[in-house]
Structure formats: C-alpha cells, structure tokens
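Subject: complex prediction, re-run

Hi both,

The earlier run crashed halfway through, so I resubmitted it with identical inputs.
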Amino acid sequence: MSELLQPLLLGDRAALARAITLIESTRPDHRAEAEALLEAIAKTKLSTKRFGISGVPGVGKSTLIEALGMHAIAEGERVAVLAVDPSSSISGGSILGDKTRMPQLAQSAHAFIRPSPSALHLGGVTTHTREAVALVEAAGFTTVIIETVGVGQSEIEVADMVDMFILLLLPGSGDELQGIKKGIVELSDLLAITKADGDLLPQAKRVEADYTAALRLLPPRGHGQSPKAITVSAMSGEGIATMWQEMQAFIVSTQGNGWFEFNRTQQNVAAMHTQFQSLLLQTLEQSEAFIQERNRIEASVKEGTLSATAGARALVSFLGIARNV
Amino acid sequence: MSELLQPLLLGDRAALARAITLIESTRPDHRAEAEALLEAIAKTKLSTKRFGISGVPGVGKSTLIEALGMHAIAEGERVAVLAVDPSSSISGGSILGDKTRMPQLAQSAHAFIRPSPSALHLGGVTTHTREAVALVEAAGFTTVIIETVGVGQSEIEVADMVDMFILLLLPGSGDELQGIKKGIVELSDLLAITKADGDLLPQAKRVEADYTAALRLLPPRGHGQSPKAITVSAMSGEGIATMWQEMQAFIVSTQGNGWFEFNRTQQNVAAMHTQFQSLLLQTLEQSEAFIQERNRIEASVKEGTLSATAGARALVSFLGIARNV
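This time it finished cleanly. Structure:
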C-alpha cells in the first residue's frame, strides 16, 4: 500500500498534495499507486458536502470563495477548494484556484487550495477532480468547493460531481451578455448575484428580483428544492452568512428526503462510465497491433482513398468487439 | 445508392437539407444511407474554402456573417453557413445559424443556412458538422462558414475543421471581460473587431491597435501567415470588403505553400480518430453481453463495494481488448 495512505488519513497536507499529484500523473506506476490509494480510501464513509461554484471571468469567484471559505472555517468546517478549468488545457494555465487570489484561505490551516491541472484534456480534468475530491475528503476536509468558469461544458461536468451547484451572476447584465445559457441556470441550485455593494447594490437587487421571478417558472427539480436568487458582497461581507445558511439548508433538506445519497450514487455510476471510456482508449493506445492497424488506415485516409467515417468503421471492425462480447 | 445523391450533386437544396437531416439521425438505416452518401461524395475533389467564425454572444456574429456572406455571393461564391453550438445540447436550442437573424442570406438562392442540431452531445455535433461540410460542398457551395460561440471547447473543434479561423471581438473590452482566453486568440488566423461604427469607432480602432501589437508577440504559425487584427462594421459595411480580401489572401497564400492541403489531410486523420471513438462506444452499447456485465458492475458501484475507478477497470478487462488485438 502507498506510504501516503496513513499521513493522508491523518490530514497531512503535504501527503495530500503529493497524492493529488500522483492521480494527475500519466506514469503507469504512479497511476497504479493512485488507484490503490483511491480503493483504500473508498471504504471510508465520510460526512462531507460538495459544492460547485461557477460564473464567468470577472464575476468575482475567487474573492467570494475566499469570503465564504473563511466563514465556513469559522463555523468549524475544513474547506478544500479545487478548480476545473477546461480552458487551462488550451492556454496552459488557469486563474481558477489561484492561491494568490485567496490569500486568507491560502494561509489557513483549515483550508486546502488546489488549482486546475493544466495541459490535461477536458475529460481528464474532471476525472482527476473527482479523484481529488475523494482524497481531500479522506484527509478530513468537510466542505469541498469546486470552482469552474461559467461558460460551456464544464458546468455540467461539475454539477455532476457535487451535492449543490451554485451560479454567480454579475449585477446588472442580462444573461446573454454574461454568456450564461438558460441551461446553466436550470442546473443551478442557488443563484448568487455578486458585488452587491456601493453603487452596484440597487442593480444587484433588481437582478435578484428578476431571477427570483424567473426561477418560479422553472420546472420542479428532482431534489424537491426550489432554487433561490440572493445577493452577496465579498467586499462588505453582506450576504455571506446567508449564503452559507442557504447552502447548509439545502444539504440538510436533501439529506432528509434521500436525494443527497441517491444523487451521489448516480454520480458514481456516471463517473464509472466516463472513466471506462477513457481507460478503454488508453488501453488501446498501448496495443501494438491496434496502433499498426490504425497507421495502415490512417495512410489510406491521408491518400484520400478512404473517408474518415469509413476509416473509423474499419478500425472498429478490426477490434471485433461486436463478435467478442 | 441513396436517391439523394444525384439531386445533391446538382445542388438541389431540398435534397441537401434532407441529406443533413439523415446524417443527424440516430436510426441505423438512416445512418447507413448517410454513410453510403458520404462515401460516394468523398471521391469528388472540390475547390472550396472553409472558415470558422467565433465570438461571444453579443459580438454580432449573425449580422457580420450576413454582410460577409452577401459580399461573397456578389463576388461569385455560393455560401453555406453551419453552426456548432455546444450549449444547444444543454438549452435544447441555439441562436447560431438562425435564419431570422440572417434575413438576406436566408432568401438568397446562393446561400444555405443550417442551425446547430440541438440535443446532440458535443462530439456528435462536431462529427455531424464535419459531415454537413462535405454535403454542402458536394452540393456546390464554395464558401463554408462555420459559426460557433466564443467560449470553451467548441472553438478548438471548429478550428480543427476549417482552413481559416476568425475570431470576432467587441470594441473596447479586455479579453478577460469577453471571456476570450489567450489560447483562443492563438488559434485565430484573423481577429475582427466588430461594431466599428459611430461612437464605438475610436474604441474599435484602439482595440485593433492593441491586438496588432499583441499579435506580433505570438510565435510563428505552421501556415506561415501572421494573424492580423482588423475593424469591421456590418451596419455601415465598412471593412467587409477588406475582411473578405484578407480571407481570400490567406487561402491563396496557404494553398501556395502547401499548408492548405497538409492541414486538411491532418484534419481528416484527426476526424477519423474522433469518429472511431464514438463508433466504438456505440458498438458496445449494442452488445447485450457488454450491457449485462456493465449492469453487474454498476450494481456493485451503487452498493459502494466497488469504486468508480475499479468498476471502469473491471469493465475494460471484461472486453479483453488487450488480449485480442
């Protein structure tokens, strides 16, 4: 068994950081150690809460997560912040989970911040984040916040790995302007309008009222809770306690009606499907016979004698999946 | 052979629309007919140009594409507009490729507009768009414009299926505010600052100058062209002719140095890989033995006796891929 297991379970932060690096590694021996570690900790039943927090760049995710995290710590929580940033695989860097933007949390003994791993493909980022959640929870962090950008596919993937999904909105702009699609609002269990202070306060209150009205029109959710819109200011601190209370109330209520457990189980099954797909492709990449056949087909596609579609079909036929299983 | 082939090759728009519907269908018989059709048209060598145009909601994609498309038609082109909108699979609808937002193009006999298919998963949308490009080209459309939203993964996928990728930017906001990541700018062969008219003109010119300076710092590209920043106004028409000229110059120059052909070949090979993956998974979904084993493993994951990771590994082992190939 990995020598990281014991210190990890004792909450050793260096061991935790090393364990996360291990799951992000592509080296087969690292991967084997990581999986053994994940199996070992899978047995432990832990009482934890997982929140997804999303919003477009500029909405103030880092400052809000810092304020919220410090509040949670004051309430006795140990807080881990993980980031999922699909764009970091393009740009090679991420501003999510940036420790310099969360200076108080970064210094707290009760917090753990981990930026998004860069240069991993999208599916890889989410698989690793899911595994990182298991690790931080095993290390005793009771509240896990997964931060993501409010644009595109990553919200759906984050919503699929948390107990509650929260969308941050800027005061005073329509959702088209914020790049927020209706579908993302529908994923959200709580809408928080940020920067509700000073000159922006009246606008924030107006946006809150607009969304409160709009949310009433949404169909009921599986968890039985009606999403709310609230205003919050990381600067003044106004609304932070309320936001935290809303988050607790949601968890308590979904634990009461059974949704919480049901949802986690469903998420686990979905994660198994996703991981199966990426593992299958990885396994193929290690097969010499497969690579040879693929090279042969690629050559025909390059020459133009075979279309991409026909080449794909030929390669699937080569595997003989349909016959063997 | 599909009865659609002949009318499609003659440029019959109804046949084209039906052929695209066919490739988007999930019915196996439709899919078989679609693939036969794609094979039949794959043999034809056509002289076409493929442009990707991206930008955040509100940047004025539809109006610019309309102005640019009408200009291209006046220059003798036949213009097809296809849309890739990953968010349409969330929201169930798309504002891209919306005919009502391109009223002139929608009425032109020399244009064909196709909105993004909704309710398909992201990979599905791009595969189908790639196939739709082949169909519109076979039907005699010489300029294909693929429209996408300027946020996230879809740009990369669109950049991977076009000859030239163009990013639209709003005048007077930094790229973080526009949700544009550095990586997207690096993908772009041309930056066009939109709405360069009236009060916004000076701001647009300033943004043009900023990007012109910034683009000089980027590493040289494989195609040997230096990306430019230009200003354009769909309203006044100013810059439309210049933009079209830049697009032609890029194509001519990359055709001259061999990049154009090389790039299309590489794109074809990459498309084969992508389609292989989705076809492989589809084939598995049709195997009863596989589904049974997956159900068995799922049950253990639900009970909590097996982690998602271990379940995924067990399912890959069941396939015996590594042994068979």
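Chain B has a mean pLDDT of 86.

- K.
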